[in-house]
């Protein structure tokens, strides 16, 4: 099969509806929105996270394949450090966390990502901390 396009979305599991933001993205490729929403909701009905990453591969004959990813790193951090909102000014205002929370985040995310080395995962988490306005001690 010839691949027409690859799409990446972040959606709520089990709550897809044929309305924006899904409708404009998938509609421009000619996909049946109701079929997609039903298929996605059936795949994710037992997943209990806020948002997940979804990859959609659309083929030339308008068939598609849904690949479910993991929860976003920022949502995992938000749960572990019990914060509702992150800093609005990341370079100026900071949220300070301790080293125990940092180790906890690394241990939970070690097997969720493609990176195998702990040092690579540590760098990814530190970059996310920096962009969210978090410092750890």
TrEMBL record:
The keyword Nucleus does not apply. Keywords: Methylation, Ribonucleoprotein, Ribosomal protein, RNA-binding, rRNA-binding. Coiled coil: none annotated. It comes from the Bacteria. SUPFAM superfamilies: Ribosomal L11/L12e N-terminal domain. InterPro entries: Ribosomal_uL11, Ribosomal_uL11_N, Ribosomal_uL11_N_sf. One or more lysine residues are methylated. GO terms for cellular component: large ribosomal subunit. GO terms for molecular function: large ribosomal subunit rRNA binding; structural constituent of ribosome. Residues 8-61 form the Large ribosomal subunit protein uL11 N-terminal domain. The keyword Ribosomal protein applies. One of its GO terms (biological process) is translation. Forms part of the ribosomal stalk which helps the ribosome interact with GTP-bound translation factors. Belongs to the universal ribosomal protein uL11 family. Part of the ribosomal stalk of the 50S ribosomal subunit. Interacts with L10 and the large rRNA to form the base of the stalk. L10 forms an elongated spine to which L12 dimers bind in a sequential fashion forming a multimeric L10(L12)X complex. This is Large ribosomal subunit protein uL11. The lineage of its organism: Bacteria, Pseudomonadati, Pseudomonadota, Gammaproteobacteria, Oceanospirillales.
